[in-house]
Write a structure and sequence with these properties.
- The structure is a homodimer of 332-residue chains.
- By secondary structure, chain A is of the alpha/beta class.
- Helix content of chain A is 34%, strand content 22%.
- A six-stranded mixed β-sheet of chain A has the order 1-9-14-13-10-11, sandwiched between helices. The first copy, chain A, has a six-stranded mixed β-sheet with strand order 3-2-8-6-4-5, sandwiched between helices.
- In chain A, helix 3 links the parallel strand 4 (76-79) and strand 5.
- In chain A, helix 2 (48-66) packs across helix 3 (87-93) and helix 6 crosses helix 7 (233-246).
- The radius of gyration of chain A is 18 Å and the shape is globular.
- The mean pLDDT of chain A is 95.
Chain lengths: 332, 332
C-alpha cells in the first residue's frame, strides 16, 4: 500500500490563530489562552446554531486580525462543523469575501482543514489560507441526541461537546511554527454502535493514523514532544494507548488528549470534552501558545471524527471513524 | 483581490469514470452512457439512504475497475454528499482501504472533489485519487422537505433530485482528458429563502465563479465548447445567462445545465434535475463520453451548491450558495 503521508517541503507556517470558548470551557485549561472568553454561550444570538456560527466567524476574523493582515490578504477559508450541511461554516463564510472550501470530518475537522491549507500553500497555489472549525454543546446535543428540555441523564461513558471555535492562518512564511507533514486517515469501523461512547469508537482510527504516520515518516513516538489526539476523552485515550502498545508502539509517555484536558472538573462531562471545537480551541490557544514559546517544539496533532448521523444509527449502523494528523514543528 | 484560480501545470488526467443512475434518470440522456442503469432505485437495499451509499460505492469501485487498476493503486478518495454528516460518502469509504477526505459542497461536490483531486495530483503528493459523489431522490426529499408518504404537491419552481452517483479517477497520466484549472468559489447569498427555488438561489453563485474564472484565466466564454452548470434547472439557467449578460459576458451560445438536460420529459420534475448526483452522473457519463470521443474538447464544469439546512431555513435564514469550477480539456 502506498504512503498516506505528505511531507511539506516548503514547511508552511501557522502565522496566527484566533479562538473563542464558552464559560464552562474557560473555567478550564484554555481559559487564559483564548482570545475571547464568553460569559454567555448564546454570544448575543437568538439560537444556539447562530451562536455557533458567530463563534466560528469570530475565530476566523480574529486569526486574520492577529496576523496583522486584512481580509483581502486571505485567499481561501477551509472549514466545516458538526451541524447538518455544515451550516456554521457556510454561514460564517458568507461574512467574508474569500473563497470557501467546505469539508466534513466531524471532530477531525481542525486537522483536516490544517492539512489541506498546508497542502495548498506548500504547492504554491495560494499565499494565505484560514483553517477553522467549532462546535456548540447545545446545538450538537439537540441535533445528535435529545432535546435539551428533556433533561436526559447522560451515561458515564459520554463526553461533553465543547462550546468554542478556533482558526489558524496558514501562510508561506512568518514565525517559526510550521506544518511539516500531514497524514490522511482512512475510515475505520470496529463495529461500535453506542452513540454515547465516541471515544471507544474513534480510538481505533486514531491508532491507525498515528501508526501510519510513524511508519511513513520513519519516526519513533519520542520524536514528538506531544502526540495529541482530538477528543477521545479519558476512556478513549486509554484505549488508543492500549491499541498502539499492542502493535509495539508506546505513545504513553507523550500522549495527551484535548478532550481529556479541556475541562478542569469532570462532573457531567464524564469522559471529558468532544466536538470539532474541542481540538480546535485547545490546539489554537493552549498548544499553539506552548509552541510559540518553544516550551514544546514537535507536536503530532491527530484529530479524530465519528462519521455517524442520527439516521445511520437509527438504521442500525455502527460508527465509522476517521483520524487525520498534521505534524506541527518549530523550525529553527 | 487575489486570483481564485489555480492553473495545473501537470494537467492531471481523468483516466476513468464510473456511473450509476435510477430508472427515471436512465429514461433520459444519460441512460445509454451510465455503467449501470438501475431498474429499481432501492438497489437491493432496505432503505433509501443505504441505496444511496451503495450507488456511491458502486461508482467508486466501477471507476477503479474501468481504469484497469485495483484498489491498492488508489491513494485517496475525496467525496461528500447531501445527507446529514455525509453518511453516504463516509459509509462508502468504509468499503475501501484507502484514505478518505470528506468534503461538503452540497450539489457542487463533484466539481469541488475534482478540483481537490487535481490539486493533490498536480502538486505531486499522490498518484491516483477517486473523486465521487451522488444523491437519491427519496433520501433527499425526506431529509430536506417532507416525508414521502405525505405526497405533497410540488411547486412549479421546484427541481427533482437525481438518483445516481458518479466517480472519476484522477491520475498523473493516462488518456487525453485533463483537468487544467480550478476556480474555487466564494459564498454568495442574494437573500432568496424559498427552499423550493434552488435554481434562483444558486444562479448568482454560478455567475460569480464563471466570471471569476474567465477573468483569472483571461479567457472569453467561446474558449470553451461548453460552459456546464451543475443543477440550476431551467429557471436557474435563464437567470445565470441573464446575470452574466448583465456583466457584459455572453455565455448563452455555449451554456448547458446538467439539471436542465438530465430528464427527457419534464413533468413532476418541473425545472429539471438537482442534487449532487445530477452533475456527477451527467459529467462522468454523457459529457466525459463526448470528451473522450473528442466531439467536444474544452469544458468549464461549474457545479453549484445550496448550503442550507432545514434548521437554517427554520430559523429564517436565506440560502447561501457556492459554485466551484474545473476546466476539463483534451490535451493533444
Amino acid at each position: 500500500m502506498s504512503a498516506h503521508t505528505v511531507l511539506f517541503r516548503q514547511k508552511p507556517r501557522i502565522i496566527s490563530t484566533g479562538t473563542v470558548a464558552g464559560p464552562k470551557e474557560c473555567a478550564g485549561v484554555v481559559g487564559k489562552y483564548v482570545d475571547k472568553a464568553l460569559s454567555d454561550d448564546m454570544f448575543g444570538e437568538s439560537t444556539y446554531e447562530k451562536a455557533e456560527c458567530k463563534m466560528l466567524a469570530y475565530a476566523i476574523g480574529k486569526a486574520i486580525e492577529n496576523a496583522d493582515i486584512s481580509e483581502k490578504d486571505i485567499d481561501m477559508m477551509i472549514s466545516g462543523d458538526l451541524l447538518n450541511q455544515i451550516i456554521s461554516a457556510s454561514f460564517a463564510a458568507r461574512d467574508f469575501d474569500f473563497p470557501f472550501l467546505g469539508v466534513y470530518g466531524a471532530c477531525s475537522t481542525m486537522a483536516e482543514s490544517l492539512a489541506l491549507a498546508a497542502a495548498f500553500i506548500d504547492a504554491g497555489y495560494f499565499n494565505r489560507i484560514v483553517a477553522a472549525t467549532g462546535s456548540h454543546f447545545s446545538s450538537a446535543e439537540r441535533q445528535y441526541r435529545y432535546p435539551l428540555e428533556l433533561g436526559n441523564t447522560r451515561p458515564p461513558q459520554s463526553q461533553w461537546t465543547v462550546t468554542g471555535a478556533g482558526g489558524a492562518v496558514v501562510a508561506k512564511s512568518g514565525g517559526g511554527v510550521a506544518i511539516t507533514a500531514a497524514t490522511f486517515g482512512k475510515v475505520v469501523d470496529f463495529g461500535i454502535s453506542d452513540v454515547n461512547n465516541m471515544g471507544a469508537a474513534m480510538a481505533p482510527a486514531a491508532c491507525n493514523t498515528i501508526l501510519t504516520h510513524l511508519k511513513d515518516t520513519g519516526r519513533a513516538p519520542d520524536y514528538y514532544d506531544l502526540i495529541v489526539t482530538g477528543d477521545l476523552g479519558a476512556l478513549g485515550s486509554r484505549i488508543v494507548k492500549d491499541l498502539t502498545w499492542e502493535k509495539g508502539v508506546d505513545i504513553q509517555p507523550n500522549h495527551v488528549d484535548c478532550g481529556e484536558i479541556v475541562y478542569n472538573v469532570i462532573e457531567d462531562e464524564f469522559q471529558g470534552g468532544s466536538g470539532a471545537g474541542c481540538s480546535a480551541v485547545v490546539f489554537n490557544s493552549y498548544l499553539m501558545d506552548k509552541l510559540r514559546r518553544r516550551e514544546i517544539n514537535r507536536v503530532l496533532f491527530a484529530a479524530t471524527g465519528a462519521l455517524l448521523s442520527t439516521v445511520s444509527s437509527g438504521q442500525g449502523e455502527s460508527i465509522p471513524c476517521i483520524c487525520h494528523a498534521v505534524s506541527v514543528e518549530n523550525v529553527f
